[in-house]
Write a structure and sequence with these properties.
The chain has 2 domains: about 35-230 and about 480-490, Uridine Diphospho-n-acetylenolpyruvylglucosamine Reductase, domain 3, CATH 3.30.465; about 235-460, FAD-linked oxidases, C-terminal domain (Vanillyl-alcohol Oxidase, Chain A, domain 3, 3-Layer(aba) Sandwich). Helix content is about 25%, strand content about 25%. The chain contains 13 helices and 21 strands. The chain has an 8-stranded antiparallel beta sheet with strand order 17-14-16-15-19-20-18-21, sandwiched between helices.
Length: about 500
């Protein structure tokens, strides 16, 4: 495999999500005073803190180190050293990349936080795949694969996140008909809690593969992965407006056209027309596939849209303007073809809120297409009663996930990614928790699921209902990791008591 190593040092990465209405954008900022080339060293007796994209998860940790080694002996030794020290002292370990979760799912309380920072990607064009360091970001992948007319088969709609982190939260994207990103992973190498190095695939250590896909780093530390790529294409969008309640069935109808390779939907969030209007955007290959241009990033429309997006805060008129922009003006000014790689080559900083008094909070719910109308009615009943600022909801199709033990799509689902702007106050947090629990209760009642990387507001029984294999996962985790070395807030808050 030819190798391209991305050497540019990355700035602190912000939260992630969907372009024009995705994830929170508070920076994750470690407080580490000394760097020796491999790790940040905490002076004896000094406290270290980590936060995440919510800005609400500041947590005391013992140490934060950054590992830059390529996959190989040095990387394995560094990880084993950290695991051994943590185990001997009864401290937890957790690995992250961008740390864009919102409830401490990538933070080990009073433990050893490891950040992977390595952009190593090795393409295998004959097999249309890549071998990558687990800390490589999707921007690294696109930079390498685009000149080869290849790109990620499935990734989130922003390029800031780590490859293994995407797998461990079981993230999805807007290519169709596809399952989550884990459906494109052929195998990986992982260091278990006891230090053993193992290889996992759907045929080798298959249970470990399924536990790790969407297992939030609780089963082991991935060092490298084999992930499928897809042909880059020039795509043309088609726009269709419809009543909000029809969007679930209309997405399924659109996907019956095998030419559709990417798709997403939007719902109006104005209070006057709350979720009554929908926009479905589908992409098909254009006739001309010659001389594809290099992957671009934020265009004029994206920059304009980001300004309008932020102007919605407390301004119903701007929510109307935004809907007009997306459903009318943007269909004209961005109606031409764009490459597949350009569509997903968007940094999340485009949507940075730049407001220290507020934070963007994501919710995500997964419902069967034939029950989507019930989901819309649920949202109309619950969300307007909150004083949260509702900024966006993006809809995507996620195909069946037969692999993950903590699957949110055991059948085909419509994913609804919601973005709220929340005051950073106790009253706002209490209101968000109340609203979240009401939404989860309603989604569970119609056979749906909620996503686990966000604020820890669900009740214990709600998690157990949404993820029926959670208790089985916990039992297997305890057998694999009897010292509970690999832990995070998801484990501490929910899983440990199952």
């Amino acid at each position: 495999m030819a190798t391209l190593k991305i050497l540019t040092r990355r700035a602190a990465l912000l939260g992630g999500g969907a372009a024009i209405g995705g994830l929170a954008t508070k920076a994750f900022t470690p407080s580490n005073p000394t760097l020796d080339g491999t790790r940040f060293i905490k002076p004896s007796g000094a406290a270290d803190m980590l936060n995440d994209a919510s800005g609400l998860s500041e947590t005391t940790i013992f140490r934060h180190i950054t590992i830059k080694h390529d996959p190989g002996a040095q990387l394995i030794t560094a990880i084993r050293t950290e695991l051994n020290e943590a185990r001997e002292n009864g401290r937890p370990v957790n690995v992250g990349a961008a740390r864009h979760s919102m409830g401490g799912q990538a933070i080990p309380r009073d433990g050893h936080a490891i950040t992977f920072d390595n952009g190593l990607v090795e393409p295998d064009t004959s097999n249309q795949m890549m071998r990558t360091h687990s800390g490589a970001r999707w921007s690294d992948v696109i930079a390498l694969a685009d000149p080869l007319d290849l790109g990620p088969r499935v990734m989130q709609s922003n390029n800031d996140f780590g490859i293994a982190a995407t797998f461990c939260v079981n993230a999805h994207g807007w290519p169709v008909k596809e399952g989550p990103m884990g459906s494109t992973v052929r195998g990986f190498e992982m260091i278990l809690p006891d230090g053993e190095l193992v290889t996992c695939s759907r045929t080798e250590n298959a249970d470990l593969f399924g536990m790790t896909m969407g297992g939030y780093g609780l089963t082991g530390i991935i060092t490298q992965m084999d992930v499928e790529l897809a042909k880059n294409q020039r795509l043309e969008p088609t726009y269709a407006e419809m009543p909000g309640e029809e969007l679930g069935t209309r997405i399924v109808e659109a996907l019956a056209d095998g030419e559709v390779t990417m798709a997403y939907g939007r719902l109006s969030v104005t209070r006057a027309d709350f979720m009554s209007k929908a926009l479905l955007v589908t992409f098909r290959p254009s006739a001309d596939q010659s001389d594809l241009p290099a992957a671009s990033g934020s265009g004029a429309a994206a920059n304009i849209a980001s300004r309008i997006y932020r102007a919605q805060l407390g301004n119903e008129r701007m929510k109307d303007v935004r809907w007009w922009f997306e459903s009318d003006l943007a269909t004209t000014i961005v109606s031409g073809p764009s490459t597949r790689n350009s569509l997903i080559n968007e940094p999340v900083v485009t949507l940075d809120d730049r407001n220290p008094d507020r934070t963007d909070i994501l919710h995500e719910y997964f419902v069967s297409p034939d029950r989507f109308a019930e989901f819309v009615r649920l949202c109309r009943e619950v969300i307007p009663g909150s004083f949260q600022e509702f900024l966006n909801v993006t809809l995507r199709f996620v195909d069946t996930d037969p692999d993950s033990w903590l699957a949110y799509a055991p059948v085909p689902r419509i994913a609804a990614v919601m973005s709220f702007s929340q005051e950073m106050t106790a009253r706002a947090e209490a209101d968000m928790q109340r609203m979240t629990q009401e939404l989860i209760a309603g989604v569970n009642a119609i056979g749906g699921t909620y996503y686990l990387p966000y604020r820890p507001h669900a009740r214990q029984d709600q998690l157990a209902q949404a993820y029926p294999r959670a208790a089985e996962f916990v039992a297997a985790k305890r057998a694999l990791d009897p010292n509970l070395v690999l832990r995070n807030n998801l484990w501490d808050s929910y899983l440990r008591v199952l």
